[in-house]
Amino acid sequence: MSDSEAKRKWLRDLQAEDGNVESALVLIPLMILFLTVAQIGLAAYSRTTAGELSQGAVAYSAMGIPQSLSTQSGSKSTQTLIALPLPGGGSILVGQEETRLPSITPLLPAGDNFDSTGIAVQE
Fold first, then answer.
1. What is the mean pLDDT of residues 101-118?
2. CA–centroid distance for 16 within its chain
């Protein structure tokens, strides 16, 4: 086989479209799997972060500094702050936030919904 024939064969093999269908059949489920893993990771991270932010916001409110419970971006949330009086004076502040994260994969269409609670004693 001469040099020119080898180059022509190489170009012909390069231009062949064999394997495109197989690639598409593999890439679509792989992308759905990747997005599902990403959404589960995002949900775990968001739950931890929302719990810490709720606790911090309630602690700031107990010190007399108004603080919003909702500080996560990209999520819809509703928040409540309740003051329960103590018999000897002061109160217990309980803050609860309900968060709804959007869905990014068809395998988990509802997204993630969770509650986070923070508790602090106000003297």
1. 84
2. 41
Confirm whether pTM is higher than 0.85: no
Mean pLDDT across the chain, nearest whole number? Answer: 81
- The helix or strand, by DSSP H or E, that contains position 18, with its residue range, turns out to be none
Determine the 3-state secondary structure of 63 from DSSP. coil
Q: Taking the domains of the chain in order of start, what are their residue ranges?
A: 3-122
Angle, vertex CA 22, rays to CA 21 and CA 25, nearest 5: 90
pLDDT for position 68: 64
Report which of 116, 32, 123 is spatially closest to residue 70, judged by C-alpha positions.
116
3-class state of residue 43 by DSSP: helix
Q: How many CB atoms lie within 10 A of CB 99?
A: 25
